[in-house]
Fold these 3 entries.
Entry 1:
Amino acid sequence: MTVDPERRGVPLSGVDAASPPCVLLLHGPNLNLLGTREPEIYGTATLGDHVARTEQAAAEFGLTIEAIQSNHEGELVDAIHDARGRCAAIIINPGAFTHYAWSLHDALAAFEGPIVEVHLSNPNAREPWRHTSVVAPVASGSIVGFGGLGYELALRAVAARLAERA
Ligand code: CA2
């Protein structure tokens, strides 16, 4: 693998070493509407803003971001499958799927790299039905309640985990 010496590169094993390691950034339902409604809960940044912020953090570590948003559970499952053996890590905000989509749990369980669950709001401080995450048990960790900063923190956590594995 070629690492830009100006960057804090993340060595990898088990993924395609020919190109810069990718991190799959997944977003679930309705998150395409960020910035248009409920700014008091989710802030004013758009999904594009969050992706750009994560890309910027990734560049520091010689990582690239592959960003996918879908309102369809099966498409997210397919994206996770497609990342196996190809992407180094996954950062996922599954939206409301967090609370009941066991297919995402199972797909993520079959992914070999670090997984970070991100939520803009703190679901544990909201309605009781948001207190359960079916993704958390198969994630390396969860970052909740810090708005867009959560994506940057997640990227740093991923880079640290990948460096440990090298
Ligand atoms: O806090 C988060 O990041 C959530 O994943 C956001 C989900 C919610 O179901 C989770 O409990 C916590 C909902 C995202 C809906 O976002 C919208 C944004 C603007 C307009 C409408 C929906």
Note: The helical segments are 39-42, 47-60, 73-83, 102-109, 149-165.
Entry 2:
Amino acid sequence: MALDRNPAPNDLSAFWMPFTANRQFKQAPRMFVAAEGMHYTTDDGRQVLDGTAGLWCCNAGHRRPKIVEAIQAQAAELDYAPAFQMGHPKAFELASAVRDMAPEPFEHVFFTNSGSESVETALKIALAYHRARGEGQRTRLIGRERGYHGVNFGGISVGGIVNNRKVFGTLLNGVDHLPATHLTENAMTRGQPEHGAHLADELERICALHGGETIAAVIVEPMAGSTGVLLPPKGYLERLREICTRHGILLIFDEVITGFGRLGSSFAAEHFGVMPDLITCAKGLTNGVIPMGAVLATGQIHDAFMTGPEHMIELFHGYTYSGNPIASAAGLATLETYREEGLFQRAADLAPYWEDALHSLADCRHVVELRNMGLIGAIELEPIAGAPTKRAFSAFLDAYDKGCLIRTTGDIIALSPPLIIEKPHVDQLVGTLRDVLNALD
Ligand code: PMP
């Protein structure tokens, strides 16, 4: 290895990029070199309006001074401390701050470094919880079609995205899936769809098939983000909760996207008024600035582990960087920013404007469905016959050239701007999309 060699700045060959068409990207790279507030700056000096909060994570917008300063100060004071049998104050402070922001039954916070790790952690806590209570036969996990729960083995097993699963072998045993909460009869609904609560009844069928007493947990995104903003129909989550409770099954909400204000309240659980037993989060926890995730557990779940001898480790699980000091400092500054600026309420207040703007695209070319809630939205396009994903990806490239960052999944455009967005930004985003959609083949 040539340790003395500086790599050429324009050498793109070494970085094997995640979830990217690498060969195509490297022929025509799109690079951001700076960011501030609602905008990215490209390497050729253009401003791009952030319509996706990075990857659904920069809820307070970019390069927020309070967060930058907190990270700098923490790095200069305590850079790293082990989290096993040792502690440091910032992690405890952040856990309390997350608990205080969460709905009431959530009293304990387990730190991870990503959404994927939060999912693995929650699934493991669910399995170990049942075993701790003498119900070790509960080993089955139930996910949902079109669910995204990160990329680790547990997450892709309970997840329901074919491309994320099919080349990786047999995955976890004992997993079943509910149907996705997507019905075309809800196509142009504003906010929460009317039809589809009955889709939760599939859980009864799965319980009848396997025996409800063999199921450890059901994991769902209260609102599925990554597969195109699929909203829970009215009554659906309530029904899921009721069936889980009746069969002694834990309900996990994966709130990696919906956590920290996206729907106008701290967590979707609060927004929908349905309480799961475990919540996973990440992304908005640190405004996306430093990798960090968390699992929120109710007192009941946590306390089931606290029954053995006091010198024994209660849960054999954790990460080298769980509660990392710099990530904790970033998290504290992020939550303070959300609170001081009332950003969750701001999202709720702006939601009607956002909804109207988004639904003004109903008559654009190729639009077959529009979905929205809080500050999130989706525009579903008619796919090109024989070339799925192509139409939406063309829209992504054109929007980028026209100065807006959007995200696509299949033939769906997903939008989730930072919660600091102003009405003129909404107008710019939607105006650009109108031009982009009407110019599409
Ligand atoms: N769960 C959900 C609901 C997500 O949206 C994501 C990321 N988009 C993840 C888990 C995985 O998070 P990460 O990429 O941080 O591992």
Note: The chain has a mean pLDDT of 97.
Entry 3:
Amino acid sequence: MKAAAKLMKVFITRRIPQEGMKILAAAEGCEVSQWDSDEPVPRSELLKGVQGAHGLLCLLSDKIDQEVLDAAGPNLKVISTMSVGFDHLVLSEIKKRGIRVGYTPDVLTDATAELTVALLLATSRRLPEGVEEVKSGGWSSWKPLWLCGYGLSGSTVGIIGLGRIGMAIAQRLLPFGVKRLLYSGRTAKSYAAEVNGEFVPLDTLTSESDFIVVSCSLTPETQGLCDKAFFSKMKKNAIFINSSRGAVVNQEDLYDALSSGQIAAAGLDVTTPEPLPTNHPLLTLKNCVVLPHIGSATYSTRGVMSALAAQNLLGGLQGSDMPSELTL
Ligand code: NDP
Ligand code: DGY
């Protein structure tokens, strides 16, 4: 007689695109429970839902710390996050417990780079202000200096963190006529030659760039990297763009830099906290464009992320290869 496959309990912290759900539904021996909502799972429900789970599929808005791991208990073999960022996972504790981690690199690189370029152009060419003026009747005539901004042609662009997404941003910006492409990070990258990237100290990047794009991961080293000292080194007509994580930026210092004219403008796809409260000072500034963390938000990208997160989860549950396993 064939032994029945051991039932694996899986908890999913949110509604996710059907691509991933179909994969899990077709998997043998998988008992799936889910926080069946488009809104984040309340902490108490997360702690309840994860109890006894062998697998956890989570999102970047779920803090997976010691408390969650304790609530899950010793069954937990795999955590699969539907994101490339993993700063919401307490990796030291996860590693100590021998739990494997899956994430979703590469599949969202193009979408995120595209959005970052859109945000850069929207900020530097003042698109939200222009749209608002059209709607509110502020458009009285064509005026020589009205709603002027800054162009990329002939400019110097500085990328903080020339990883997968940073590189894809550089590739998309170069055809606009960018003259110099600077980047900073922990180590020089051989592939930077493809975009004529110059590896420079952060101070050089900050003081010489007309556009600064932050695309690094959030680590203890990058937390608060863009602070008062950083903004004070930027050119007065420079534009600051962040599509990595909000915590890389000290938002009070950014507000001061923007409101005092220390820098020209900022575009943020990520903030602290998320969502940014509607009464936040940054939202009162015309020279600050804030988007609601939509870097990877294309239908197809989110579908592929969901499928990859499900495949990672199954690999971890079955003790086999995961398509994208994070090396701990
Ligand atoms: P990668 O790991 O490919 O790139 C991360 C880069 O960060 C690496 O090049 C790394 O450089 C750099 N980095 C690490 N430490 C520092 C440092 N101290 N100073 C400067 N650079 C540093 O990841 P991805 O490109 O795939 O993703 C990057 C981040 O983008 C994710 O971690 C996530 O937070 C964010 N993201 C945001 C999205 C959005 O919707 N807005 C969508 C997707 C991702 P080195 O190798 O030298 O350490
Ligand atoms: C990530 O994957 O880390 C993004 O922030 C959302 O796609």
Note: The radius of gyration is 22 Å.
